[in-house]
Amino acid sequence: MPADSAALASLIRPGSTVAIGDGFGAPRMLSKQLTAVAENTEGLRLVLGWVPVADPDLDPTAFADARTFMPGWGLRPAVAQGHIRFLPVRLGATPKLLHGPLRPDVLAATVVHTPAGYRFANEVSWQHAAIDAGARVAAVVSRAAPVCAAGPVLPAERVTVVGETDQPPLDMPDEPPAPQLERLVENLIPFIPAGGRLQIGPGALGATVLRRLEVPVRIDSGLLPDSVADLAERDLLLGTPVATYLAGGPRLREWVSGREVLHPVEFTHDPGRLSASPLFAVNTAVEVDTDGQINVEGTERAVVGGIGGHPDYAAAAARSVGGLSIIAVTTTHRGRSTLVERLSRPVSTPSHDVDIVVTEHGIADLRGLDRAERTEALRAAWGPAGVRGPDASPETSSGTP
After folding, report:
1. In a domain, 392, yes or no
2. What span, in angstroms and rounded, lies between the C-alpha atoms of 245 and 221?
3. Which pLDDT tens digit goes with each residue over 66-107?
4. Suppose 388 and one of 184, 228, 241, 337 were both cysteines; which one would form an S-S bond, judging by CB atoms 3.0 to 4.6 Å apart?
5. DSSP 8-class letter at 147
6. Within a domain: 348
7. How many CA atoms does the CB half-sphere of 152 hold within 13 Å?
């Protein structure tokens, strides 16, 4: 069923703010219609979240203003060209923004139909906050997305169905690990205990960690990759995972169907809940400076990932008794050291929220060390890669939903 352009347009008024549900299950069949509405509606504002894959049918220049708080890989060119403004905000703070200066009038979202009513589909993320702030839902009903959201159904009176689709959510690209990443994960694995509660970031690092695990763990993370289904098959998954995004393929979507694994960011990224018991947060970085400060936002030349949930999980793990905030990063990227004297961009995660930094060459355990000792430990962990000076910056991807 094609999108009902008239029904969609009826929800939008001049000066409205439109938010589009994010992640791999974003309602892309509405992109052309939303662009057309923006071209013919004065003062329309656009709010975007995590966009992991570029959407050529959505033209941000058609809107009077376009902003994102987690650009991901899909919005890099638009942010670099100034078509979309990137907001430096942790993912856990997005509900506050959606109740304040970014309050949306309309939320375009993908939903699934259940006997009890409509639920969000491949991701929940910040979308409940948008509804709580007053947004009406322009819903695309998916017949191919999994039913895996926890909590109450969406309020029926706030939902207007504007389309249906048989297209499944997009798949997370498979990124084979490089040999240096395999060596890094070998150094990291001993820090994850049996029964531990584990958070991982997107991409090859998280997938490799889960693949190399030999002890049972609980998953409490911003996203779920395909490797979670592998863990379950190997009898190494304890309980029901907790996440707010799915980042996998058909196998993951089949496995989660019927399981209540997806929750809103108010739950998944809540620092009190996360730190109430030992949490092992494993995240990466674009750069680490010699004080142990972390940059995940991007390089001097461009935003490449975004801040996302990196500081939420790092801070929670650092304060959880028995847990660890772990930064795992290879010592070089494209021939340049990832340890720098000065970060290319502002600090994303402060050094006091980092317990351990792991590379393929070694481990810097920063707990209980003063500044000078931390610097010495970090330099040792980088080994032959050394410290990159202030005249060059890497280009890599990061960001933790």
Report:
1. no
2. 9
3. 999 988 889 999 999 999 999 999 999 999 999 999 999 999
4. 337
5. -
6. yes
7. 6
